[in-house]
Amino acid sequence: MSRFEYHQPESLADAVDLAARFGDRASFLAGGTDLIVQIERGRAAPRHVIGLGRVPGLTGVEVGERGITLGACVTHRVIEQTPALAGPLRCLVEGAEVIGGHQVRNVATVGGNLANASPAADLVPCLVALDGAVTLVGPGGERKLPIERFLLGPNRTARRPEELMIRVGLSTLPPRAATAFLKAGRRRAMEISVVCVAARLVLDSSFERCLEARVVLGAVAPTVVRAHAAEGLLEGQPVGGESFRRAAEAAQESCRPIDDVRASARFRQHLVGVLVRRALDRCVERARRAA
Amino acid sequence: MARIPITLTINRELHEALIEPDRTLLDVLRTDLGLTGTKTNCLDAECGVCTVLVDGLAVNSCLYLAVVAQGRAITTIEGLASTGEGLAPAGTLHPLQEAFVEHGAVQCGYCIPGMILSAKAYLDDHPRPTEAQIREALAGNLCRCTGYQKIVDAVLAAASRMATGAVTS
Amino acid sequence: MSTGTRVAGRSLPRIDAPGKVTGSAVYAADFALPGMLYGKVFRSAEPHARLVRVDTARAAAMPGVRAVITAADAADVRYGAAVKDEPVFAPDVVRYVGQPLAAVAAVSLEAAEAALAAIEAVYEPRPPVLDLAAALAPAAPLVHEGWRSYTAIPILQRDGNVCNRARIVVGDVERGWVEAAHVFEHRFTTAMVHQGYTEPRAAVAAWDSSGQVTVWSNTQLPFDVQATLADILAIAPSKVRIIVPGVGGGFGGKLRIGVEHFAALLARKSGRPVKVMTTSEEELTAAYPRQGTVIELKTGVTRDGRLTARQGRIYFDTGAFAGSGPGVASVATMVLAGPYRTPNLHLEGYAVYTNKTNCGSYRAPSGPQANFAVESQMDIIADALGIDPLELRLRNIVHEGDEGPTGQVLTAVGLEECLRRAADAIGWPDRRPGPGRGKGLAIGWWTTTGGSSGVYVKINPDGSVTLSTGAVEIGTAALTGAAQVLAEALGVDLADITVISGDTASTPFDFGAQGSRTAFAVGNACRAAAAELERKLFELAAAHLKTTGDTLELRDKHVVGPGGRVSLAELARQSQVAGGGMIAHGTFIAPGTAYDTKRVEGHVYPAFHSPSFHAHAVDLSVDAETGEVTIHKYVVAQDVGFALNPIYIEGQIEGGVAQGLGQTLSEEIVYRDGRVLNANLTDYKMPTTLDVPRIESILVAHPGRVGPFGAKGVGEPPNIEPPAAVANAIAAAVGARITSLPITAEKIVLGHPGGATGGAR
């Protein structure tokens, strides 16, 4: 006896119809690397699985002047290998290339990663650093949500059961901008982050002063954390040294890490300080080098 | 849900099976089709022994539904040696298989099918890899016996042979 | 490579490689029979409790379920390697989370899992004994109230929660403290770690109409499992046949009965073949991992660093059943002594019960734990005295003819050469090449386990040779090495030899793939068989070649004499026609190693046979802010006696160091309140390709007197020294002395609670 009925819609409309029909008894299947595990372990028990493999329009990557669009079913591998994402947008590649092994990255999607809403998801801080927003489609039409409002808690999102995430939109970067992503873990691959950090800086024409900053933390709270206080201490300030140190401290204060089998809260807090500082340094280095 | 008929293209052969849709590709390969070259272990995408190629991309078959594999070209370890269709006689080992033998890269052997397929997928796209790139490509395949060194040596050697000589598959 | 050998000593490809690279090799996990059922085990959810009842009625009625068994279906038998304390299913008291309580067999895995979910167990929880401290406290609750009633190896020193205390006493340590200028005392701890084989434990059992059960299993010790299973089934061992199709890694975790008894009992009850296989979760909660330890080490040295005395206690948290604990506690005392000249010793190993999974043997059992303490302390001593750590060791290491801790005379001692060459290769004495960078050394010694091996060797009429051995190939290429020894002796090529192995019914007895003994013992048994075959071949050939035996030799697959030659194939054909075939039985058991029995007590392993010696050296950097460790270079110099097949010996070194680095930096089974928190491969972190550096192997050869061509056991030693070598390098790099394994980034940055516990007077 199969645990679920499998559906393979061939259009977006059909996919949404199925979701509307089955509601919370259905789950969408993208790469499967989260959903299938959860079903096998008994942590999820959908009666209907709606495969997205044949729904068109979900796998495109567009990098334009007005923004970047990632289809919800864009895989981590595609992100890794898209040249347009390798420049100042590099944190996306850095966040994508560390999840799992290549077997996972070949099938796991950005939408699936967001929908799974793990507090330690690596790509999520990178998306938030680029002002990421998800577009959801339901019977009532489309709506757009910034990722920080989409992610509600561990494995909880604002997606309604009858909605399908179709794309993630990101901001383009102005000139003299750079991004960086760093993570810490106990081994160098196949690692759920103990702490991860994505940073984005826009520098002024002298490359000595920060105009805009994003500092985003993962694995240190129930969902991704925008370190607003840290960002405030960076904008308008000279780069490096004291201002980066103060920003790192502020970032430490903005996180609420836990003790778990991977690390203690105290160590996580310490790492936030170190990784934020290093991510900021790296952004400066990259912005200057690109010039 | 009742069983549904599926047709899987595995190593360029068609295989039919009647399966529940919640069955994984790994389970169908091993249990229904008797292709036990693909191995089972963690069932959690953590160890890589279940690695197969789907349209040339390495995937963990333990988390890949068999129904999703329909219409795609699946390669398992059994499909690597020559079938005799090309230039090489049937049974000729793929350069990766030969290199693993020659370089002492095989110990207990349980991780090897997945390891070879991961390497093949990478070499097919990157014919002249560095050691660092090979290690990145194989990071999702755990080996407990070898410490990876001779596996990396074997992949480097195979890459060299494949880049310069005739390839059988 | 030794001169004068043609096959033995060459890096030839292993015999079983083609099957493994094509996926045609069948492992126990792959094995299946028509009509086979799938078995699953129902396990305890409490660490310590009275088992009020197990309700299986609902499970038995579920669709597809063909058999359900509980303690009532198994003989009232306890088994265990040293202490027979373990039941198949807990009959009345549950002693660890994960302990088997019942099992089901069903037509599919899904149906079996559904049946498990329908079983209900009712417990009356008791206070669990959670760790060593709790187990050893005065008036501690007993994990086994009936411990006195258990059958055990007579020499064990058992008392309550201690299932053995092994002891070595030499001289008088009190005198040693008086003679010492400095005395150092330190405490070390190590975590429970798992062997991490990639193939789960698996067994398929099928009964035939004569009341014999055949079990296809991935055990490392088919004859041991045969005996244990016979006890459990209450039938004669000859009615139990164990066949090993292939093993996907063992490292000691597949020595003892694992799932074979469940498969056999379910098959008997259902009348169908049954397959049982473990999951990752079961491996990390209910297997035979390496014991966690607490080590207290007190060492006295003179002003110029000569050891005067050592007192050591190592406590093994061996879990709910004794398992390998008593033996491991014994071996540990040998490792605590180390390959050093120390006139006064008082060394004790304790195996202690707690309410956790019973622990077993993992590659060099007790080695990494005890060596971590000894070699870390040596560096601490060196630094305190202002003596170079290499120099301190050179002043104290054993040499040819010296005594081991139990009085055995040490021969073929390649230790100094190993130490100097490893240190040289790592660039000693430049111990701190840069900021945050340091080098560390560690040395050790180990045994080649004894036990007997028999082989049949048959020469076939086509000239091929069949080697039949009860040994099992677990991945080390030991059987290839043994076949090389055989090929050498018979004058044939490795490619001429076919190996048949691991069948208790048809292959001769072998003590098993444990203790680095297989190539050594099977190789020697092959030599014995080859000698007998030579005698028979020469006898037959003499008639052909019209000459006597002394002028004949085996060469190029022929018997060659002054006047001509005749092929082995021809002689085998003749023998088959007129003499029943050209076959010989060869046996080997290592001679005992003499030692002083007055020095030991409760000691299961009082001498190291054909000992090996080794030195590890590592060069690494530590990111002081994140605690991340990057290894630049890792060197192993190992005295292997004679390298039977260098490329696979390198493989043992590279793989053993990789496992050792896992134990050192990232692996631990974490218990809280008697439950494992990380029973999955996401959070039980084994090293990946990006975590293991290149390892340089230096094969040193001081041939022993016993092994084939002087070979010694090679498989286990590489696991021993990594923790201490890395700990010493980290201390050199950033001044952080971590005395607890694993040495995580967190411990390096924040310090371990209790930190570097110890000091000097």
* Overall spatial form of chain B: globular
What percent strand of chain B? 5-15%
Q: The biggest beta sheet of chain B, please?
A: 5 strands, mixed
**Reading side by side through the largest sheet of chain C, how are the strands ordered?**
3-5-1-12-9-10-11
Word description of this protein:
The complex is a heterotrimer of chains A (291), B (169) and C (761). By secondary structure, chain A is an alpha+beta fold. Helices cover 33% and strands 24% of the residues of chain A. Chain B has 169 residues and is an alpha+beta fold. In chain B, α2 (95-102) packs across α5. The model of chain B has no long low-confidence stretch (mean pLDDT 94). Chain C has 18 helices and 30 strands. Chain C is globular. In chain C, α6 (222-233) packs across α7, α9 packs parallel to α10 (367-385) and α10 packs parallel to α17 (722-734). Chain C has 761 residues and is of the alpha+beta class. Chains B and C meet through α2, α3, α4 and α5 of B and α1 and α16 of C.
Give the gist of this structure.
With 291 residues, chain A is α+β, with helices and mostly antiparallel strands. In chain A, 33% of the residues lie in helices and 24% in strands. Chain A has a five-stranded antiparallel beta sheet with strand order 4-5-10-6-7.
Give the key terms.
heterotrimer; A: 291 residues; alpha+beta; 5-stranded antiparallel sheet; 11 helices; B: 169 residues; 5 helices; 15% strand
